[in-house]
Fold each of these.
Amino acid sequence: MNAKERGFLLLTSGLGVPDRKPLTVAQFRTLARRMQTAERPAETRELTLEDVVACGYDRTMADRIVRLLEDGFILDKYLLRGKKQNCVPISRVSRQYPLAVRKRLGLDAPGCLWTKGDVALLETEKIALVGSRRLAEENRKFAEKVGYEAARQGITLVSGNARGADKVAQDACLNNGGKVISVVADELCNCPLTENVLYLSEEGFDSPFSAARALSRNRVIHSLGFATVVAQSAVGEGGTWRGTTQNLQKNWSPVFCYDDGSAAAIELAQMGATLIKPEELSDLSALQSGTNSFL
């Protein structure tokens, strides 16, 4: 791991220290923008307080950034502990970092993604599935069909590992010999090391669940696949609605919503989603027509 990769980790991960305050997504985005135009120090020396102040920060914030970068010893211990639990980080400047996430999210892409499982799945063709935790029966069958078709067609399913649509689709995919990338919002280290599954998380491999993490991971799910399929949503509430409307506003990936006649489906269609019937899932690759899938 080179110095730049270590820097991304030091700035964006809690490193298992409860009172350590890494930069938020917005703060890290601001720093990245300022560093793009700043005069960079020679790679032979470390970033100093004055370097950061020169980027337009007050001394308090500049000191916080520098102190985060000084936790190299803590980082080394954290990396070793993660390795023992099969958790490996991929920073935004690493070769293995998913190109689709980097390109589509830009500076909003996570500074680091922690992985557990088959990292090679990041190089496969992928489609995302999102949906409510409480599903109507017809919507449950739809989510199940998306998982089944992904497996049958050799496309990796991306989802969020939550109960409801996520679990239904993931189970259907794996039970039919498919492959799954699951973006979790709780402790990555507690996820089982399972064949044909890759678990991803932000912040750290031992970061506990929080509502903020659950919402934040939406952008990763929506940007990983060549398209995002919505099994069910509710108007104006819940992570599925929020993530999908953000996608439609920011164009992370094409959105296809199950045409169940619901108010949510109708409103999402008005925002730019394409309504889709179960029979149209027989050729998932067709959903990426005219888009750049980035795999």
Amino acid sequence: MELMVVVVIIGILSGIVITASGNEWRRERVNTVALELAGWLEQVRGASLRATSATTSAGGCAITLSSLTSQPAGSTLASVSPTSCSPQSTFILSGVATSGDRYSTASTNGTSLIFTPRGSVITTNSANVDIKILLDGTSLLRCVRVVATLGSIRIGRNDAATGIADSCPDASFGGQF
């Protein structure tokens, strides 16, 4: 009888640990995509600072964001032109090849922006651009914000999102990336 009780307790604890580690694994996947995107944007911004008007069109590096809302891992989320602005001319959603991850993505205030040689940003309506990333099947929303005119890049979060239409509260955006 005692052995049965021990087996039941171990089973319950194992279930809790597996559930918690699964949640942490999903959180890390969406965090990774947000960090990689912020790093890629910072790399393009740095290239625009080093570039001359002869190597960039209109004196800057233009980013075009995908308009697809639900994309599998391996899809292109953004591209840059000219390609000399980054060793990687596109940003591809990362994911574990066998996991079948799908990400819902959206951007607020336009689908394009330009990093100028001065490091500032030109957007469609002079507003911040938020790129929202949500791992489908979860409530884990991450936002990568490119601050209008200043060009700084910040990452925010909303762990209780109900969908891609939600946003990250301003208070969730920490320091500059």
Amino acid sequence: MTNLPELSAPDLAALLASRLCHDIISPVGAIQSGLELLDDMPDDPESMALVRNSTKSAVAKLQFARIAYGASGSASAQIDMGDARSVAEGFMSFEKANLSWSGERAYVAKNIAKLVLNLMLVANASVPRGREVQVEIEALEPAPRFTITSTGKPLRVPAKFRELLAGDAAPESIDAHAIQPYYTLVLAREAGLGIAMEQEDEKVTFRVTPLERAAPAETLESDASN
């Protein structure tokens, strides 16, 4: 597995908290704006719609973050992949790309579910103008294997993810923008899984397999540079 820069636990927690705040500040700010408009124009339908839709977005993002970043009850908790799918669908309903999800439902170690959700975020960020993100759960036990594919144009895999996957990132480069891709690869490492990335024209595929079956490091670096 690609070597990753080391972060202290406090730094990791602080940067993830910053990422979470970044994700929810927009819908929360929109709620505030809508409420201020309602002060001036009570019962205004557009202001009510703004508050309602922004509240739904904020709730969806927080429910997603609770599983994707949080302990989800306890440090040793297992997570129902059905719940992971539900929060993923809620999150993606406010994004530009459409989400399709297939595969078995089971309780899995929390890092497996968190990895699926975080890699889905990387896939979603790869198609900023939208189209489709496809999650295919091939196996969960005893050896997790799944594939996440983004299809769209322009196709832009986040540069920080590429750097981290290739082992080119320095510790000082891990900031609030890089922390989510970094956390994704940390989850893979902790779960004993490898990530291979394949890119072509309007499609990028992220394949996750047990580490001993993953593509060798030099292949990962080569793929990431394409």
Amino acid sequence: MPVNLISTEDLSFCYNGTEVLRNISFAVKKGDYLGIVGPNGSGKSTLIKNILGILQPQKGSVYVFGEPLASFRQWAKIGYLPQRLSALNTYFPCTVKEIVNLGSGAKASMQNFDNILRLMGIEHLSSRLIGELSYGEQQRTMLARALTGNPDLLILDEPTAALDPETRENFYSLTHELNHNQGTTIILITHDTGVIGKYARQMIYLDKKIIFSGTFEDFCTSPEMTGFFGSGTQHIICHQHDRSNA
């Protein structure tokens, strides 16, 4: 029976009395590729922060690799890229290669390291200081750091927001390879519903509560999503997916 790497039960959270998450229950099994989509302010990043213990769940339960969140300690199994790089000290005298190596762990190989730098388009930046890079280059560096340790679970919050189209496609292809060939479990938050439908095996549409959970094909025919979006918007999203597959 597949192991649940992440599961939540009736998870709820408020900021200063304002409800952000309401009764969120879902599970991510080993080998899943889950896309979490939704509008700005829908609670996507807050959900991830509750799962990782960055924010403490106020109601309900979170289990990580089958353990209650409070007792989980094996964080090296998880690669995480936050939505904003506010924790990155760009004045710290550290090179791209040194920062990426911080995420490598014992399972990484030099071939894997070089391949990820190439796919992220930063191999020529390996000796540059992080503070000398553009925001997009910094984002690619932190993406590479999250990937190099071959984590069992990758959690990526809007990872392609600052990437150019070619690097974005390289990144999505890499996540597909990691999931399909290496069995890496992936949770990816994005606004790009049509594109993530090309890669994710499962989708959750979140707007404080779970509006939809299922495959992208089910999303395109879901009466709940038709009621939520209107048939015209739903058709546009699914048509964008069709064009990305062309």
